[in-house]
Structure formats: C-alpha cells, structure tokens
Design brief:
By secondary structure, this protein is α/β, with parallel strands linked by helices. It contains five helices and ten strands. A hairpin with a 3-residue loop joins strand 9 and strand 10. The protein is globular and about 45 Å long.
Length: about 200
C-alpha cells in the first residue's frame, strides 16, 4: 500500500510564500538542497494552480522579483520535471505540456484512495493547499512534514497554510536541522472530531 505525505515549506508563521521574497526565502543551504535532491521514487500530487505555476517555471518563466533562476532553483525544477506528477483539475485540458504529468478529472479524494491501494510507494503533495486539506480531512495522509525557514512574514506573507484545517493531533516521528537554521518536523496526523480528545 502506498504512503501519502503532505509536505509543506513554510515561514515560521505558517505562510507558503511572501511578496518580494525569493524561493526558499533565500535561505536554502547546501545540507538542505542535498537532502531535497535525495527524494527518489516520489509521485507528486498537485492541483491546477500549482501545476500552472510550476510548469511555467519548467518552461523558463522566472518568478516575480528575480532576473534569472539560481542554479539550485533550476536543479529543483529539473528534478520535478523528471518525476511523475498527477494533476487534479476540471479546468485544465489535455495534453498537459509538462513532461511526466497525468491529468485526473475524477474526485481527488477517491482517486488518491485508489492510488494508495495499489500505486507507487510514495505519494507526496506539492503546494496545492486545498488538495492537502481535502486529503487530510478524508484520513488519507500518513505523514505530515513541515520544513520551517527562520523568517516571519507578518507583513508580506501569502497563502496561510493552515486556514480552514480541522483540529489535528500530531505525533512526531522525525525532526532535524539543516544548515544550522532550517528546521524539519515530521508527524503522523490524526484528525480530531472532538478537540481535546485523545
């Protein structure tokens, strides 16, 4: 049976991005980038917005506020291009232009449930906050991983990750620090129907 990982990269205050900041808030280091490149055998799950943004990067569109990609950003996009990707959307049209991408129009929760029963060894979300919420609520998420960068983006932060989430109990299963400043925490999540229950 496949394992489903929800994987977030955040500021300390839980934003997925921030206006005027570069990718990884400009704080990625060699330890983190090496670890990031050592994630083989992953099938990535995403929605239409994330697909459009990431496929644009793969086609050479540079993020706002940058003149060009940094080498580590190019390497990260290249890795994603090579990996298998499943895109859940009712608005996108086939064929998808980003290599190794499959479009699924069916209900994402039911499709992921079927993928978990006989699909690839590891499924991982990328971005796609509403998809992640749906999968967590449905009880399909096995691991919940957050990589926190040491910035607070109270004035410029966008995409508040946890808005709309149910209450969730988290059992820590892993943690580590990269480059003396970036903190990874990984949990086994359990959605609580009655907050405070064990």
């Amino acid at each position: 049976m496949s394992e489903l990982l929800v994987d977030f990269i955040t500021s300390l205050d839980g934003h997925a991005s921030a206006e005027g900041w570069p990718g990884f808030w400009g704080l990625e280091g060699p330890e983190y980038l090496t670890w990031l490149g050592e994630q083989p055998g992953v099938t990535y799950l995403m929605g239409a917005n994330t697909y459009c943004q990431m496929s644009g990067f793969a086609a050479g569109e540079v993020p706002d506020g940058q003149d060009e990609f940094r080498p580590e950003e190019e390497a990260s996009v290249d890795e994603l291009t090579r990996a298998p990707k499943v895109v859940f959307s009712s608005s996108l049209e086939e064929p998808l232009t980003w290599a190794n991408s499959t479009l699924v129009r069916d209900d994402a929760v039911e499709a992921v449930r079927a993928m978990k029963s006989g699909g690839p060894a590891l499924l991982s979300t990328i971005g796609s906050l509403s998809l992640c919420r749906s999968l967590l609520r449905a009880g399909l998420v096995d691991r919940f991983r957050v990589v926190m960068f040491p910035v607070i983006t109270g004035a410029t932060g966008a995409e508040r990750i946890y808005d709309g989430y149910p209450d969730v109990a988290l059992e820590m299963t892993d943690h580590r620090t990269f480059d003396g400043r970036i903190q990874l925490v990984e949990y086994k999540p359990r959605v609580l129907e009655h907050p405070g229950s064990r």
